[in-house]
Amino acid sequence: MTNDELLSKTISYLRFPLTIGVVFIHNRMATINIQGHEINYGDLWPWVSYVITFFSYVVSAVSVPMFFFISGFLFFYKVDFCKDVYRKKLKSRCDTLLVPYLIWNFLAFLILLTQMHPRFSSLFPLLRDYRIDITEFLSYFWAKYLPMDPVGDVEVPLNPSLWFVRDLMLLVIASPLVYWVINKLKSLAILLLCIVWFFTLGKQIGLYGMSHQSVFFFPLGAYFSINRIDFVEFARKAKWSPYIYAICAIADTFSDGQPYNYWFHNSGILIGLIALTFMVSNLLSQDKVKINKFLSNSSFFVFAAHELFIGKLMKALVMIIQPQSPYVVLLLYFFIPIATIFICLGAYWLLNRWVPNMAKVLTGGR
């Protein structure tokens, strides 16, 4: 297997596992708000909180940075960047990013209208007095918090997962600047952006609607691509990375909530990118794993669809089962994302079988 083949296969294989990580990030079982009443299972059983933190906050945290890194790498991969290339890439990203972004956010809007219907007011009391005007509607396609939404680190569109696509579109528009800065400042540019991300300085700078993750990891991928550095070959030299990552992940889990936690968390993300690439590329090169085209192709659909209903599924099951045991809570914690993924895969399979053109539009032609 050539280096180029291994690089391509590694990227293809990573798509679905990284999407699983994103689903787990949005599997917020530690604290649940049901009809205005907050249930905190982490306070009831602290060890449950550690398990949830490990899978939803620590291990899964590699997913979105890796997506940004791969996007930056592929955007500049084997091209001599110029005006014509830029125009062609802008045009192609309209189909692969903008159109699905608008459709999936509009689907989220239709779900919101359903939740606001008087018939469902008892299920969504926080929306009872909520009103929508044109300004409110337009904000759904950029950054909006609804009354029942937890306040997070990133301003999100109405379909929360799509903040990644929003940031990616902005970075694509700014790609000539990214290219120019990397060519002029080289590794110094990456160092400065790493500092901005690592110490979350993006919040202080005031990047409204832009995550400090995106402004580092997309250029980082671009840096590797522009300088013709094969990141898979680079990672395969780091045989130590899985062991160092394991230490960072354990420290990150048990220091959650502490002021120094970001040292372990962000270090773990950086090393985790290398460790994950190292492990996957090794398994592929040794023929121990195979790429499942269906799972790889369905990744964007799962990514875009899951958060439309995973929170509602979680609350419904908690209301029905009313878990009184930590083991039942953990069973639900793992069952909910798995069920969500299978529902999304089933929906994608049906669309792809019966309405393939619609499936193609919803996934940006992927």
Model description:
With 366 residues, the protein is mainly alpha-helical. The protein has one domain. It has 18 helices and two strands. A two-stranded antiparallel ribbon has the order 1-2. Helix 16 packs across helix 17 and helix 17 crosses helix 18. The mean pLDDT is 91.
Explain the layout of strands and helices:
Blueprint: H1 3-25, E1 31-34, E2 37-40, H2 41-44, H3 46-58, H4 63-75, H5 83-116, H6 134-139, H7 163-173, H8 175-185, H9 187-198, H10 201-205, H11 214-226, H12 231-236, H13 241-254, H14 261-285, H15 293-305, H16 310-321, H17 326-354, H18 356-362
What amount of the residues lies in strands?
under 5%
Total domain units: 1
User: What is the strand tally?
Assistant: 2
Find the structural class using helix and strand composition. Answer: mainly alpha
Cα-based radius of gyration, to the nearest Å: 21 Å
**Biggest sheet features:** 2 strands, antiparallel
Name the average pLDDT. 91
Number of helices: 18
Q: Which runs of at least 5 residues are low in confidence (pLDDT < 50)? A: none
End-to-end gap: 25 Å
Short descriptors:
single chain; 366 residues; mainly alpha; two-stranded antiparallel sheet
